# Entry
Amino acid sequence: MQAHGVRVFARRAGVQLQQLLPSGQNRFSTASSASPESESGAHHKQRERELILSVLSTVPSPREARKFLNSVSGNETMRSQREFEERQARLATEEPTVRTPGRLVPGEILRGERAAETRETEAVPRRLTASVFIDGLESPGACERTGKLLAQIQRIGVSPVVLLANNGSADATCGGYRSIIRQVHQLADAVEREGGKARPINEGVFFNNPYARTDLTVDPELIGAAIAQGQTPIISPLMADAELQVKVLKPRVAAAAVARALAQSTSTQHAMAGSGGAFSLLVARLILLGGADGLTGDGDVFHRFVNLEEDYAEVAAACAQPDVLELMRTSLAILPPTAAGIVASVDSDPSLVLKGLISERPVATQQRPRRNQGVARQSQAVRRAGIPSYRPLPNYPFVDIGGRDVAKAADVVEAPTQFTLLRHGFQIQRHTKLDTCNVPRLRSLLESSFKRTLDAGQYFERLRQLQSAGGVEIIVAGDYQGAVIVTHEAVAGAESLPYLDKFAVLPSAQGTGMADILWAQLRRTCPSCMWRSRNDNGVNKWYFDRSSGHVRAPAQPGATQWVFFWYQSSVAGQRTLTVDEIQAGIAVSQKIAPSFI
# Structure
């Protein structure tokens, strides 16, 4: 029963679970607690059904399911991760410098006490890991909910490493010390009650290292030993100084030290300390559970997705949780570029955090928003015009555990819980002319992303013609690791129509959140937009989740079969596409010649 939820992923990804696991090993049961015979049968079944429900509610795409299974099984081979490891090994062999970098760089870690050995040694297996920072458990039921979340994370094959931060309620007095110890043990007990395994670690993790470039250092051996035993290490923010006086560490300092220790344990050539040579880590998520359900700004602005490299200054200027934002920025800069951050409430339902852990999508693309009357009337008009409207289905299934009735979807999504997804991300460049772009790099990006040869002469000539007509907008992320090209097409009887001409991501940038970063920039640039995609394009599922509607072109022998998508703005005062504009846009986009040979 414990692997049933994960087998759902295997079926969606088109792979066999047995092919992903090492011979004779069931990685999904190593983190489980006692056998079902040692607990109440009814309670065990209910817990298993809750886990399966939480896993199914993530509704992953086949690509997301395959990536998650590969990560859990140790078969993750993304180029971006390998590049991080090569950079890590290179930094480890370099002589340490006394300079302090003026800017955080993802993947820049401290040199260890010992020089890295050659990379010709045999690769060690990877253990998928999530670093969890908990900022207080004072609210009613918070400890039980968090314990359930950590147990469920264990049972889907991920090893959580938990730091129970000091949220200001505990000081360095004897009472504050005992309060922290009590919370650590209460959380460990909650994990055990939910079928997981936990190990409280109150001392020996943090210490001052006079030979390191930072004062605070983490000994990863205690953490690795707990993970090797299938236990969740729950670490208290306590440290004894040289005079054996106990100090309560600040959250930002302790969290950064833990993140640095985990980043130093990600090499495929060297096992993590304390693991007995059994594994190294693959850090996937940095989860912060606190008092707020995400990052907010002025005027009740909620940030569902933050590209820290591009959006940090803007978000920080009006952020209601500046300490949380800075903590995530500091920690994500230390971890591999494939890691993502999640800021959620400690009172969130565990299934919501599992969505961010598995699907890698901002919450806006996971839950169906409430539709106002204006949107409903427009959808009816679109259907009357013969264009089917598409809306992502609500999370399935809405089952009331303990009863046979299916709950009403409207009751579940009436007030959806939110979280903020963060990536270290990339800087963004914007161009309205090809002359300001690096055209050879742009062409290489398009051909690498689509794995086809671009008809460069015809394609770029079309863009140059549109520059002086409707206009062209080119959004480039990073060092041409991703790009969006939008053309403004002339439509009879209306202003020019924004048309998404190309959406490209380098294969080496997959897993870094590049697609979500580009999509967020596209929505800022074009509140409403249309585009087309081949009927057999594997990315269509991703488009379905992010579109307001779609229509399939009538099948014609020998002709390319297209699916036409569009999205609409829900912000008052911004342009929305009418039914006539959508129909005219479909007619125009059908006439655009294919770009690839």
About this structure: The longest strand covers residues 494-505. The CA atoms of residues 463 and 568 lie 24 Å apart. The chain has a mean pLDDT of 76. The chain has 19 helices and 21 strands.
